[in-house]
Amino acid sequence: FGIPSDETFVITTTNRKEITEDNFGELVHDGVTLYLLQSVDQMLLLATKERIDFLPHYDTLVKSGMYEYYASEGQNPLPFALAELIDNSLSATSQNTGIRSIQIKLLFDDSQGKPAVAVIDNGSGMTSKQLNNWAVYRLSKFTRQGDFESDHSGYVRPLPVPRSLNSDISYFGVGGKQAVFFVGQSARMISKPAASQDVHELVLSKEDF
What we know:
By secondary structure, this protein is an alpha+beta fold. It has helices at residues 24-27, 59-62, 64-70, 78-92, 128-135, 139-143, 175-183, and strands at residues 10-13, 34-37, 102-107, 116-121, 186-191, 200-205. The strands form three sheets. The chain has a two-stranded antiparallel ribbon with strand order 1-2. InterPro entries: HATPase_C_sf, SMCHD1.
């Protein structure tokens, strides 16, 4: 730090608690911000910045659909939730040069597992990175600039038109995940990028959380 050998200094937390040999071990893995000062009560010369990293509570994701769709002002919310899921397929198939296929299946065969809603399309597919990005709450809204492998890379947004098969329902944000956790308790995304032989699978499960 360029401190002369004859100069005294203290290390403190942002609450001005001095770090000593006795309490240092408590802070090693906490990721706290520390000050290097001439004295505990030294006046800061400049405003300080601190980076905050946190993991949201899983209820932020798994209950968001309930809050969103139950607030639909008396309308039947299920069609809106299904429309959000279909929107992913509309985006994925928007650049198809051939047939654009989107299927919705309601699965109730107990021998195959729990009841499920399946939305299947022949779109461009997602890489493992794009699947990861889709899973992160609101990530796409803040990383769409400059991320060469964002969850909508290669996608061209259609011109603004009334809601139709050529428009977006929720291009950015959390709509798809809210819809998933309104309709059910888990999401399984299976995707094969058009130019790859690899198949990627992502599971978001309330039970696992």
